[in-house]
Give the backbone structure.
Amino acid sequence: MPKVTGSSLLPSERHRVILDRLARDGRVIATGLASELGVTEDMIRRDLRDLSEAGICQRVYGGAVPLLSESTSFIQRIAEHPEQKNALASVAVSLVRPGQTIFLDSGSTNEAIALSLPQDLNLTVITNAPLVAAALVGRTDLTLLTLGGRVDPKAGAAVGASVIRDLQMIHADVCFLGVCSLDVEGGISVFDSDEAEVKRAFVRSSSSLAVAVLNNKLGTRAPHFVASTNQITFLVVEKDAPASPVNEFIAAGVQVFRENHR
């Protein structure tokens, strides 16, 4: 899209530019946008406030990020973007070392990771997600442990006090955490408070944290905080993931891996 300049733009025209930038870059920065359009930062902030109040984006410090819609059910998500998730999984499993204990949290990408785990690594795999566990049932080259409790249909996993209590007694070398949204400033967040509690317990009980994420979750936020960016050890992104958020994660000390198998 060609650069747009001039203070004579109508509010609707500025809003369209903002939405285009959100779709292209995954975020907008008020100072940069004001300079690009030749208007004041106050004017851009008013635009962002209007768009946020309309439920189109979420204001953050210095700008805005896209507003992510509430998650669909786990069964529905498994059917979405299978090629991209398998490509992410093929990179994610390269982070696993022989003899490790790993947490596989709920998530359709984590189900792909379970199906991609290499043979004969003598792993111990612990999960609270029935379909993730089902992907590993019958594997004699690893030890599979499941965490029980009430299964939330949207999360596709057991949540609640019993899961959190069990996690206090276990330690993992690496946790593969499913995420609803991921932003450098906001970290990892999800839509459900019970699910967020369980995910925070996974993080507390792990030496390292790995996240494999599709492009549509980068630069977005959900209501319930799980973990900050500085708690993430490994981030696996798609081959064509936007450079801006990826570079920000690298600058924050996260080890970033791009998939390159498609």
Observations:
- The chain is about 35% helix and 20% strand.
- The domain at 74-258 is CATH 3.40.50.1360 (Rossmann fold).
